[in-house]
Design goal:
About 75% of the residues lie in helices and about 0% in strands. It is mainly α. The protein has a single domain, classed as Na+/H+ antiporter like fold. The longest helix has about 50 residues, at about 355-405. It starts with 11 loop residues before the first helix and ends in a 15-residue tail after the last helix. The model is unreliable at about 405-428 (pLDDT under 50). Pfam families: SBF_like. Keywords: Membrane, Transmembrane, Transmembrane helix. InterPro entries: Na+/solute_symporter_sf (IPR038770), Put_Na-Bile_cotransptr (IPR016833).
């Protein structure tokens, strides 16, 4: 008698649905919080019932950096603080390159005189491009992508510290000529802006990292157990959702999405996704320029010229490893909304009639960069571990040669060409 097919469990579909919800909890939570922000904007807006300017802007961000401080070794932190090449790469990408590209695109759109695109939203795009890298998103996403989290911590602190000075200056520079109508010319507010930025960075970034480092060094075993057992990385992702919840609540409360044409919002939505992906790809090539491998194919030896040796030492390290590249890709393309809202309101005033149009690109860019980064981090993580697998295979091959009594060449025993005479070939 043929075997009868096993009956399909009634719990099969509910169980699959629960698994899907568990895997996509971040996006589901984001959708729920956006709906709540739309229905009850006064609850989590800046200055609202929840007092999110303190509880979220300081509290949620501080929790993220406290967890990062507990997870990062002090030695790695000191090492990455001195990584001046990465700091230079991220700063030039975050402030100069991205803002110049957006300024050129927006100027071209404005000259086309498309009535469906609001000119103040174009100004908002330019202002968004001048903002520093985001505070919390970078740390959470770098952890998910298995990149250099410690380097990201340094870039976040340095970038936002510089942003307090550079961003207002860039806005003044870009709002000239045909954009002169949007020049804030609010020099009297710059001092207050600097004080606010220093206060926020000190209380929500520096102090939590310091406390996390102290806890980690005083109670190393207990700290490691807490980080791994309590899944503190998930807590960081939830704090990130709260930050976005506060941003959307503020935007809905100020009627930011109803004060502009629908065509403009649709344009901004698709433009933000495209430009974020473009900036991420640009950061990759900026972090791993192939011409450096062509100019410096081998490490200097005793026979190399002094010029080659000096240039190799200065310029070759600008070709970063994969973990550092992930950090640069996430930091260089991202823009902060938590600090960006303060930068916008301090320059244009909290009662400016065009404040809603200025904030829409910033708030949308934040949410879209989170969703896009959530997808990209899966590919970044595979890319990072592909290098580790490659290195492991090379080491296994070298050990096999040595056990067989074969002569092992220096280029086989060292990965990435760090010893003299080793060939350097581009990695995928």
């Amino acid at each position: 008698m043929p075997d009868e097919p096993e009956p399909v469990s009634l719990w099969r579909y509910p169980r699959n649905f629960l698994k899907f919800c568990q895997a996509q909890w971040f996006f589901i939570g984001l959708a729920v919080l956006i709906a709540l922000a739309h229905s009850y904007p006064n609850f989590a807006r800046l200055g609202g019932l929840l007092k999110s300017q303190y509880t979220i802007s300081y509290g949620a961000v501080a929790i993220i950096f406290l967890i990062s401080g507990m997870s990062s070794s002090t030695r790695d932190l000191m090492k990455n603080i001195g990584h001046w090449r990465a700091h230079l790469t991220v700063a030039t990408m975050s402030f100069i390159i991205t803002s110049a590209i957006i300024y050129g695109i927006c100027t071209g759109i404005a000259r086309a005189q498309n009535k469906g695109i609001d000119e103040w939203m174009l100004v908002g795009l330019i202002v968004t491009a001048t903002c520093p890298t985001t505070v919390a998103l970078n740390v959470v996403m770098t952890q998910q992508a298995h990149g250099n989290v410690v380097l990201t911590l340094c870039e976040v602190f340095i970038g936002n510290l510089l942003g307090a000075f550079i961003s207002p200056a860039l806005v003044q520079m870009y709002t000239l000529g045909m954009w002169a109508f949007a020049n804030p010319a609010a020099d009297s507010s710059v001092g207050d802006l600097y004080r606010q930025v220093m206060k926020q960075l000190g209380l929500s970034v520096f102090v939590p990292i310091f406390v996390g480092q102290v806890v980690q060094n005083v109670f190393p075993r207990q700290t490691k157990w807490c980080v791994s057992t309590l899944k503190l990385n998930k807590v960081g992702s939830f704090m990130l959702l709260l930050i976005m919840y506060a941003s959307f609540s503020t935007a809905f409360y100020q009627n930011a999405f109803t004060s502009v044409p629908t065509a403009s919002i649709i344009f901004i939505v698709f433009f933000n996704i495209g430009i974020y992906v473009f900036f991420t790809i640009l950061c990759y090539f900026y972090s791993r320029p192939l011409f450096l491998l062509w100019l410096f194919p081998t490490a200097p030896t005793s026979d190399s010229s002094k010029t080659y040796s000096v240039c190799y030492k200065i310029f070759r390290p600008f070709y970063y490893n994969r973990k550092d590249t992930v950090s640069v890709m996430l930091c260089g393309a991202a823009k902060t909304a938590a600090l960006g809202v303060s930068l916008v309101t301090s320059q244009y005033g909290s009662h400016n009639e065009h404040l809603g149009q200025l904030l829409v690109p910033l708030v949308l860019y934040q949410s879209e960069q989170v969703m896009t980064a959530q997808v990209l981090t899966h590919f970044m993580k595979k890319w990072v571990h592909a290098e580790e697998a490659k290195t492991s295979d090379e080491e296994t091959a070298v050990e096999a040669k040595a056990s067989d009594g074969e002569t092992v060449d220096a280029s086989d025993s060292v990965s990435n060409g760090v010893r003299p005479g080793t060939n350097l070939t581009p990695e995928s």
